Amino acid sequence: MTDRQYSLEEIRTRLNELDDQLLSLISERRKMSIEVAKSKVETSKPVRDADREQQLLVKLINNGESKYSLDAPYITKLFHTIIEDSVLLQQAYLQNLANPLQSRKPLARVAFLGSKGSYSHLASREFFSRKNTELVELNCDSFRDIASTVESGHADYGVLPIENTSSGSINEVYDLLQHTTLYIVGELTQRIEHCLVATSDIRLEEIKTLYSHPQPHQQCSEFLNHLKGVTLESCASTADAMQKVKQLNRTDVAAIGNASSGKIYGLQPIQGNIANQTENHTRFIVVARKPVEVSQQIPAKTTLIMSTSQEAGSLVECLLILQRYGINMTKLESRPIMGNPWEEMFYVDLQAHLDSQHMQSAIQELTKITKHLKVLGCYPTENVKPTQVKLQ
Asked: How far apart are the C-alpha atoms of 150 and 138, rounded to whole Å?
């Protein structure tokens, strides 16, 4: 008996059938993740159980290798994505219970930088994709406009980029937080994939003018240094840059943006992977007029700003308080205080729930030794750390 030779059409048909089955199973698994979240409401167990996740992944790797001839790295990568999705779904469910008034709103008005297709626009859609709410999208021309739109009540939320793995902190946003009445209610980190886009498949040597937001110019500086005789023009966002290139409709202009977004404006990619770092990510924060209630079962972050006296060791004294209470600091940023020469405001991100006993005690002590202290927000951390498994 010989093995039957399948035609390419038959193979593709079978692959389509398998893909449909995978989608059905993934959908069923997501529904079960919500059932897990419901059970945790009764037991008050935290969303993440590191031991359980590790045992699950080890079992999947062993079964995949022994039964299905699948290699461990492939299984690990696949289920890291599935576990991350499960964690975020459970967090969203518990957050809806903690904030019933917000969860019942059928619409969410969201302000972001630039036009449709900008990185801020893509981040907005990503963040609210698990919120089960319809978006009313409001594009703004500047970070200040985003804050003003939310402060005035014309938008419920604002999405602001705050730091990038390549270009660093976005100082304009940090300075804005110093003077706004808004609270941070969420965060997300998005992979940024910069690409040169143009109206046609032009050669790099033909480009005379390159449009983008100043941040992509910084993040792609090494690539841009190799372009000769090119003028860099700044736009309000990458989406505005792509709109500009489309309107000009010339063969000597291009824009830096997302390849998928470029298609919205009828542009085609001419050079990809142009960022200084291969792993280029931007962290965005979500701001609102009122703080959000965070379930105690969810990993949370607290962001505060503080100013210290000008005496030697003042900042160190503050950091020692955090150390004493076992509070992990993930970010420390200093910015000048406008109108007070040589004085600085410190922005601190902490891996801690604001309502925890340790955090409350730390804030009480910090208040006594700082000139100014304000909590900008406590919010769920949506950066799900991969489950760690030692591969042989």
From this structure: 10
What CATH architecture applies to the domain 102-190+281-288?
3-Layer(aba) Sandwich (3.40)
CATH of 20-98, one of 3.10.450.50, 1.25.10.10, 3.30.450.20, 1.20.59.10: 1.20.59.10
**CA-based torsion, 222, 226, 232, 237: positive or negative:** negative
pLDDT, tens only, 81-135 = 999 899 989 988 888 888 887 767 778 999 999 888 889 999 999 898 877 778 9
66 is in an annotated binding site: no
| C-alpha to C-alpha distance for 146 and 140, rounded to whole angstroms | 6
Class of domain 195-272: alpha beta
Q: Residue 269: which of 245, 292, 247 has the closest Cα?
A: 245
Is 247 part of any known ligand binding site?
A: no
Q: Is 86 marked within a binding site?
A: yes
Judge whether 49 is annotated as a binding position.
Answer: yes
The per-residue pLDDT for 1 is 43
Number of C-beta neighbours around residue 376 at 10 A = 21
Handedness of CA 279, 215, 246, 111 (dihedral sign): positive
pLDDT (average), residues 246-274: 91
Has 91 been labeled as part of a binding site?
no
CATH topology of domain 300-380: Alpha-Beta Plaits (3.30.70)
The 3-state DSSP class for residue 161 equals strand
Q: Hey, do 20-98 and 300-380 end up sharing a CATH topology, with the first three levels equal?
A: no
Residue 349 assigned to a binding site = no
User: Which sequence spans correspond to the domains of the chain?
Assistant: 20-98, 102-190+281-288, 195-272, 300-380
User: Do the annotations mark residue 12 as ligand-binding?
Assistant: yes
